Amino acid sequence: MTMGVGKIYILPGGLLDIDRSIFLSSVDMGQTIKAPVYSVLLMHSQGPILIDLGLNPDGVKDPTRAWGARAKLIKPQLSEDDDVRVRLREVGLSILDIKMVILTHMHWDHTGALRFFTHCPIVVQRDEHRFAFSPDPFISAPYMPNHFQHPVNYKLMDGDGLVAPGISVIKTPGHTPGHQSVLVRLADGKAYIFPGDAIPLMENLTRKIPLGNVCNAKQSFESIYRLEHLSHLLDATIIPSHDLTVFEKMDKSPRALA
Question: Could you give the count of Cα atoms lying within 13 Å of 65 in the half-sphere of its Cβ?
Fold first, then answer.
């Protein structure tokens, strides 16, 4: 039996219409781009693990109830097939098969299906959990209580740590106070970094530009450099979270990324 992570699947979860300057501070303000949303499924020897939970599937039928004003501001494009429950069925799994969920952060487009995972630990940074429940008013909108105020089993992290063989979380604050990225090393030795919104676009990395929607621009900038350094040290491929060009080139479920 292969120990650790055997395969990785990208589970598509819809699209957002978003101003490019949200991802790249002060760049192309007013230019709307398409941003993919997805979850990452890790087929681990201890059981399947998910990274992030995409958009709220209730938004297919009632966007305003699911997302409030953001339904019109960012205009999520979501189909019934983009429900994480459907995507899991595509690869022969159900919600109850998932043994752990890792949240890079607790914004609305990463916690949409959280309420379905009351049976397993939800790994999140303590700083992120604390801030989500009492955010500063000027950056509170992406935290939607109807997404995360559920009886789930939060496992709170205080910085970097190994959460399962071959899977580590790396604290990368800036976009949010307790943002974390995920380092995955497969059993065959290949390594990937899923940076969440520390690096939403490949341009954040190549041009060293922090996000526009940040709680701390300097930390966002430093987190980009940290992840780049780790990728070189560990020979790990960085997969940005919302880059349509990268997303379109990747193998997606039911095909494995790796």
Answer: 6
